[in-house]
Amino acid sequence: MTVDELTRPVSRRTLSTETLLVLGLSLGQSAVYAVVSLAAKLTAAGPLSKQTASLNNSQSARPYLDLTYQLVGIFFALLPVLLAVHLLARDPGDPARTLGVDLRRPGFDLGWGAGLAALIGLPGLALFWAAAQLGVNATLVPAALPHLWWAVPVLILAAVQNAVLEEVIVVGYLVNRLWQFRWRLGAVVATSAVLRGSYHLYQGFGAFLGNAVMGVVFSLFFLRTRRVAPLIVAHTLLDVVAFVGYALLPKSWFGWL
After folding, report:
1. Cβ atoms within 10 A of the Cβ of 133, count?
2. pLDDT class for 40, splitting at 50, 70, 90?
3. How much is the pLDDT for 255?
4. Phi, psi angles (nearest 5°) of residue 113
5. What residues contact 40, with CB distance under 8 A and at least 6 apart?
6. 166: how many CB neighbours lie within 10 A of its CB?
7. Global confidence as pTM
8. What's the rounded Cα separation, in Å, for the pair 104 and 106?
9. Is residue 93 within 8 Å of residue 226, measured between CB atoms?
């Protein structure tokens, strides 16, 4: 192999295959399982609204084994993120800057992250309530861990893991790759948004719609600012409130879910 062959640009076909593999190992796989889960719910006895979609489930009746499973699961869920960053490192420039996850603008990232969380979170609650009234969502259980000392720290770690995985892969990595393929703006945003909605389908159609709308907002924000960090902050805040709030507050407060 010659030096020219080692340094030549990666072909479009190779990038396309790479993108499909990254998605297949991460959230594309989750989307397929979510579709199967929704189909199972729709074909089961009883309406969708009477069935349950549970997140952050216990993995063992033995507390420290359960904790081990939770931490190992979080670690391995983040490996596709490292793969995506590694692959982006072949492109010109620093992949941390390409994704907008460096530490150059902490005030901007935190401020906009909190603002986006409020922008998405408040209407999202209204949408979940409407979906519950219409019967197009399963009953959501955001946290089903035992009441042990490590439950809240694990739920916070799970929120961070979800945020990093989803925003780096579905926004930072995927949008960059589709932009490289010279897709039109509408197609880039729609693809990212539909993918985000699709891996939430196990919760029902309302969850698909709400997350797809979130995907449109987040993709447009990234295309304008070229920063994923505020999206990670926003997503983390949303999930921490959902997971930890459900774990600590009286369950009677969440009957509308």
Report:
1. 12
2. very high
3. 67
4. -60, -45
5. none
6. 26
7. 0.93
8. 6
9. no
